Amino acid sequence: MLLHIAKKEWKEALRDSRFRFAAGLLLILLFASMVVSYNYYQNINQEYQQAKQTVRQEWEGQVPKNPHSAAHFGTYAFKPVQPLSLIDNGLDKYLGVSIFLEAHKQNTSQYRQIADQNDLARFAELTPAFVFTYLVPLLIILVSFGTFTAEKENGTLQLLLSQGVSKFQLGLGKITGTWLLMLALLLPIFLLGFIFILSSEFQADDLLRYALLIITLLLYYGIFVNLSVAVSAWAKSSNVALVGLLGFWIVSALLVPKFTSNLSKMLHPAPSAIEYQAEIKENLEKGVDGHNPFSEKSKLFEDSVLQANKVDSVHKLPFNYSGLIMQAGEEHETVVYAKAMKKLNDIYFAQLQTHQASAFLSPTILVKMLSMQIAKTDLQTHYDFSQQAENYRIALVKDLNYELKDNSKYGDWDYISSDKDFFKKNIKFDYKPVSMTDTLKNTWASLLFLMVWFTVSLVAVRVILK
Question: What is the per-residue pLDDT across 330-345, written as a single tens digit (0 to 9) for each?
Answer without folding.
Answer: 888 888 888 888 888 8
